[in-house]
Amino acid sequence: MEEKIKICICGGGNGAHVMAGLAAAHARTEVQVLTLYQDEAVVWTEKMKQGDLIIARNNPDRTVEEIKAKPAVITKDAGQATQNADVIIFCVPAFAHKQYFEAIAPYVKENMSIIGLPGQPGFEFQCLDILKDKARSCTILDYESLPWACRLAEFGRKVDLLATKDSLIGSLISGKSQPKHDPVELLQLIFGEHPILIKGNNYLETVLMVKGFAHPALMYGHWMNWDGKPVEEKPLFYQGLTEFAASVLWDVSQEIVNTAKAISKARPEVTMENVEHFESWIIRNYRHTIQDPTNLYTAMKTNTAYGGLVHPMQEISPGKYIPDFHHRYLEEDVPYGLAVTKGVAQIVGVATPCTDKVITWAQGHLGKEFLVGSELKGKEFKDTRAPQAFGLNTLDDLLSLM
Ligand code: NAD
């Protein structure tokens, strides 16, 4: 019998459960989960004694299919989790990546594939910074998003796979590696038909394609003039959108598109064609669920796929809510999102007045200082994954990683 391909999956949340379950269910692959957070490894291991991990997959025809499988190992020990693994997949929010890179560093071997699913902006910078030369003998893959919308129903036992994306773009830095198994083919084998994995042009394109910037932009648009008083219900995140919040999102997106254009203008050989404005992206991707595609504002407000989603809030007393400014919409999507696109814009000399306003507002709520005026030189800018935080200060520096 053919030996199974061992895959190490980093993380213990929604996406890690789906990835672990799908890969464990596949005949060709065996799963070793690395979860460093609190006692997740112990709890998940105990849960596995009660039965299989169940993925409840919602199919487009509205049927729900149950996929059952068991990871071979769930551990906090990076040596055990990476043992004989050819592939390491990060399926964990970006704020946790650093500790995973540091944990796996001693065990990374040449020709391994290291996959960010999603990588989120700055994944490559952090990977190369922590793994150093070892990273150069690995394949680094970075996907624009998670392939699924998913939520844990019961930690360690059941996860609801709510929807699967049609396609997913990922970038690849091959370095000197010669992987034993093509990582893209392997992922496609595990995922099945969807999402269709598409090869992007380069990693900078993936950095500028990520859509997480919508979260801080919309939070700023909604809460920038908040008077600090609790509200009586959780506002709808998308359907409750104001024209002002939509205009903030539009402007931030345009600044990112301008950055991509500036890169290709400076270096015509660097293709950035997959960097698209949020307006055309949402209208294209959600064409079946948007009732009024006139513009970004109407598209967001009438997208039934976004129905019912609310702002992240904390209930401070029964029926009284305040915004949760420590939700991943800011904690993840500013230092590992907007600050990175801002850093790239700064390198290529693109002005980003709207992005600057959003970061300046958000950093106040996060209790950090990334930006001073319009420059990434605040006391904590090194806590971001902006290229400057890794000593990458010129376009040549950025292109040298490709
Ligand atoms: P998640 O919110 O389920 O992650 C929670 C897990 O992260 C925890 O179980 C733990 O393992 C780890 N974690 C949490 N806090 C930590 C800390 N302080 N230190 C170390 N580890 C900690 O994440 P997810 O939903 O699986 O999302 C993974 C990535 O995919 C994120 O970048 C997210 O933005 C993106 N994403 C998710 C979805 C989705 O539907 N879940 C959709 C699109 C994109």
From TrEMBL:
<dbReference type="GO" id="GO:0016616">
    <property type="term" value="F:oxidoreductase activity, acting on the CH-OH group of donors, NAD or NADP as acceptor"/>
</dbReference>
<feature type="domain" description="Glycerol-3-phosphate dehydrogenase NAD-dependent N-terminal">
    <location>
        <begin position="6"/>
        <end position="116"/>
    </location>
</feature>
<dbReference type="InterPro" id="IPR013328">
    <property type="entry name" value="6PGD_dom2"/>
</dbReference>
<protein>
    <recommendedName>
        <fullName>D-octopine dehydrogenase</fullName>
    </recommendedName>
</protein>
<dbReference type="InterPro" id="IPR003421">
    <property type="entry name" value="Opine_DH"/>
</dbReference>
<dbReference type="GO" id="GO:0051287">
    <property type="term" value="F:NAD binding"/>
</dbReference>
<dbReference type="InterPro" id="IPR051729">
    <property type="entry name" value="Opine/Lysopine_DH"/>
</dbReference>
<dbReference type="InterPro" id="IPR011128">
    <property type="entry name" value="G3P_DH_NAD-dep_N"/>
</dbReference>
<dbReference type="Pfam" id="PF02317">
    <property type="entry name" value="Octopine_DH"/>
</dbReference>
<keyword id="KW-0560">Oxidoreductase</keyword>
<dbReference type="InterPro" id="IPR036291">
    <property type="entry name" value="NAD(P)-bd_dom_sf"/>
</dbReference>
<dbReference type="GO" id="GO:0046168">
    <property type="term" value="P:glycerol-3-phosphate catabolic process"/>
</dbReference>
<feature type="domain" description="Opine dehydrogenase">
    <location>
        <begin position="201"/>
        <end position="364"/>
    </location>
</feature>
<dbReference type="Pfam" id="PF01210">
    <property type="entry name" value="NAD_Gly3P_dh_N"/>
</dbReference>
<dbReference type="InterPro" id="IPR008927">
    <property type="entry name" value="6-PGluconate_DH-like_C_sf"/>
</dbReference>
